[in-house]
Design goal:
The chain is α+β, with helices and mostly antiparallel strands and about 300 residues long. The chain is about 25% helix and about 35% strand. The strands form 3 sheets. It has a 9-stranded antiparallel sheet. It is elongated, with a radius of gyration of 30 Å.
Length: about 300
């Protein structure tokens, strides 16, 4: 009888423990959900300036600075076109959908996370109404980066924020051209041209009677322009090795009436490409440059 009573008490205690644990777990989940729904200081600050209304981004570190600004709806950096995708990735990482985790707030922790005046990258986000927020970006560790609001001690953890540097080169838009096939009206090569009708039929010029056009080949070529991506944008003086006669030329007449001209200059292991009328200079791999140097025979079907 005593044994039965002891077992009953044990089961009762276990039941009470399970109930307590269940209450704690439910309470914790409710608290986490409530905290997730409440914007912390970081998100409250960024909510005031609206991600979709950002007009200017300034980076500053140790006396050096870089500005990315929106001009007529397009992002620019160092008087060049900036890569809109990279800018969007930056803003998406900063304007995180979920509350960033608070990971510290002491002076020692700020030093450990490189959030000191000398080490942090200061990022000023300004919207078109002139409202701004300044963030301090600190140490990056794997997919996470330490960040804090200017003037505050709290340190938050952001995920998937790419390394921020003050060199403009990584921010440049390296798309030489980015055209859908139906946006191309005419392709002019060094010794011939190919025109496309509104219904997607290609014609070679000058026409040769009985010649069978390789439409698939021309469509495949057009896909190389969607987009044509450079390895680098040449900012300053063109290297001497590219001071040579044009290797080949490609003139793209678009369906909107505008024309883009690409001049190719062959180097030892790559090409320098000059884009007109902008006069921008890009570096392009040797393989891609060779692929764009086509003869008429490459677009003509041969009989087996």
């Amino acid at each position: 009888m005593t044994l039965i009573i002891m077992k009953s008490k044990t089961l009762l205690y276990l039941g009470l423990v399970l109930v307590v644990l269940l209450v704690v777990m439910v309470g914790r989940n409710l608290l986490q959900k409530q905290q997730a729904q409440q914007l912390n200081d970081y998100q409250q600050a960024l909510a005031r300036i609206n991600k979709n209304n950002i007009a200017q981004i300034n980076f500053e570190q140790d006396g050096e600075s870089l500005e990315i600004s929106k001009v007529n709806g397009n992002w620019q950096v160092a008087s060049r076109s900036a890569d809109p995708q990279k800018v969007e990735e930056l803003l998406s990482a900063l304007f995180t959908e979920n509350n960033p985790i608070l990971i510290g707030q002491s002076d020692e922790q700020r030093q450990n996370f490189n959030l000191t005046e000398a080490e942090a990258v200061k990022v000023k986000l300004q919207n078109s109404d002139g409202q701004e927020v300044v963030l301090w970006i600190g140490r990056q560790s794997g997919p996470t980066t330490a960040v804090s609001l200017a003037g505050q001690k709290q340190i938050y953890e952001l995920r998937h924020l790419s390394n921020i540097g003050l060199d403009p080169q990584p921010w440049f838009d390296l798309n030489i051209v980015d055209l859908e096939a139906n946006e191309i009206k005419k392709l002019s090569f060094t010794n011939f041209s190919a025109s496309q009708t509104s219904d997607g039929v290609w014609q070679l010029e000058p026409e040769i009677e009985g010649e069978q056009i390789n439409h698939d080949g021309l469509n495949t070529f057009a896909m190389k322009l969607n987009p044509l991506i450079a390895s680098e944008l040449v900012e300053d003086v063109i290297p001497v090795e590219y001071d040579v006669p044009i290797s080949h030329i490609l003139i793209i007449e678009k369906s909107n009436g505008k024309t883009v001209t690409l001049e190719f200059y062959k180097g030892e292991s790559d090409y320098l490409v000059t884009k007109l009328p902008e006069s921008d200079n890009y570096m392009l791999s040797e393989f891609t440059g060779d692929e764009l140097d086509k003869s008429r025979d490459g677009f003509v079907l041969t009989e087996n």
